[in-house]
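Team,

Forwarding the record for the chain on the shared tracking sheet. I've put the sequence and predicted structure together so nobody has to dig through attachments.
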Amino acid sequence: MKITYYGQSCLLVEEGGKKVIIDPFLSGNPQVNIDLKDIQVDAVILTHGHADHYGDTVEIAQNNNCPVIAIVELAQYAAGKGAPEVVGMNLGGAKQFDGFKVKFTLAFHTSSIQDGDQVVYLGEPAGILLTMGGKTLYHAGDTALFGDMKLIGELNKIDAAALPIGDFYTMGPEDALLAAEWVKAGHVIPVHYNTFPAIEQDGDAFVAALQKKGLQGSVLQVGESVDI
């Protein structure tokens, strides 16, 4: 499994000729310089509906004629905005696709988007268990620390985990360190930090703290990858 980081919480995950992108906030992210036409994927997967995660979902889905996989209300919203195909799932549900499996887990956050002068509710936020080629990535989405992360770690062999460390909107580094211990990930990637002043954090310090706990992690710059 190859995981490439594209800023904020966006990951491109590929294995066995299949590619999926999670939370594609690209064109609105000042840290990212990439042509959306260069994003070639088999699916877009979303953790929740906030603009810094929903991002370029519809354009990428249209460019690739691929499905958007999300919690049902968010999937329906994407369909209404022009997504060519959507798969609306819900918390705890899993589905096997061609070359990968998706399961949505709990996340403790909110999910909505500003649409004109309206704030649109987009269902429950979620984490994602993405399995490709026998490897499983746990993308926690935006979340507070919660006790059932222990259960996620007990029920699944998690080879990599993307955990938010930005604080303010999500758990910060101290809570994310505990989350990393609970989910028992083979490798941890910090996400959701340094995009905005409110979520500035030291990713290197977080990874160093992981190592003191006997855990592995990587600070990925935009465009950098790690093989799991």
